[in-house]
Amino acid sequence: ASPDKHKYDHLFKIVLIGDSGVGKSNLLSRFTRNIFTHDEKSTIGVEFATRIIGITDERDESASVRIKAQVWDTAGQERYRAITNAYYRGALGALLVLDITSNKQTTFDNAARWLRELNDHADSEIVVLVIGNKSDLESGPRLITAEEIQEFASAYKHPYIETSALDGSNVDEAFKSVVEKIY
Ligand code: GTP
Ligand code: MG
């Protein structure tokens, strides 16, 4: 390995938010370690993991910038949550994760609550991406359409992307798009 492997130009803190079971921890492990776990094991407290990714500088297309994404993950369940203020402190990006196989009404009610919490605790300039996770279950138990989530996200002027932590589709793209937008 080259001695420069761990060098980076900027460190961005990004937080994962969303209900219990939507796949936050698996998106994190897929992105940082390329690992997926089938068993259900709710996060207790707070964890974080990092990965350095290269992006190109919009102002100078020949320049590559190395960003260390420090991604924080906590429990969707209230009783296991980390201290809210510390979790959001210094966060430049947030991924609001929804599960496309969950109940529609509950999902959107709770998503609005997550955005209110962001509004109350995070920097007003924070970059938000809405994620519809578990796209691999498209033809099975899907209960929320892409259009419905798109509509929800647009109402808040946030972009939307579908991912699967299971097969890995769009996971890197989701994190990368947030990092690029922050930069
Ligand atoms: P909390 O820690 O309780 O807030 O949940 P979480 O949002 O971290 O969810 P977690 O990553 O633990 O995933 C919950 C369950 O969904 C696990 O059984 C995962 O294997 C499964 N899961 C996560 N992502 C996907 C996905 O993209 N596709 C499918 N099919 N299952 C997934
Ligand atoms: Mg978790």
Outline the structure in words.
With 183 residues, this protein is α/β, with parallel strands linked by helices. Helix content is 30%, strand content 29%. The protein contains five helices and six strands; from the N terminus they run E-H-E-E-H-E-H-E-H-E-H. The chain has helices at residues 24-33, 84-88, 104-121, 146-155, 171-182; strands spanning 10-17, 46-57, 60-74, 93-99, 127-133, 160-163. Strands 2-3-1-4-5-6 form a six-stranded mixed sheet, sandwiched between helices. A hairpin with a 2-residue loop joins strand 2 (46-57) and strand 3 (60-74). The longest helix has 18 residues, at 104-121. The chain is globular. It starts with 9 loop residues before the first strand and ends with a helix. The relative contact order is 0.21. The mean pLDDT is 94. It binds guanosine-5'-triphosphate (GTP) and magnesium ion (MG). Magnesium ion binds next to helix 1.
Instruction: State the end-to-end CA separation.
Output: 27 Å
Task: Work out the helicity level.
Answer: 25-40%
Q: Which strands sit side by side, in order, in the main sheet?
A: 2-3-1-4-5-6
Mean pLDDT across the residues is: 94
The helix/strand series, from N terminus to C terminus, equals: EHEEHEHEHEH
Which cofactor or ligand species appear? guanosine-5'-triphosphate, magnesium ion
- Overall 3D geometry? globular
Features:
183 residues; alpha/beta; 5 helices; 6 strands; binds guanosine-5'-triphosphate
Layout of helices and strands:
Blueprint: E1 10-17, H1 24-33, E2 46-57, E3 60-74, H2 84-88, E4 93-99, H3 104-121, E5 127-133, H4 146-155, E6 160-163, H5 171-182
Parallel strand pairs: 1-3, 1-4, 4-5, 5-6
Antiparallel strand pairs: 2-3
The chain binds guanosine-5'-triphosphate and magnesium ion.
Magnesium ion (MG) binds at residues 24-25, 42-43, 73.
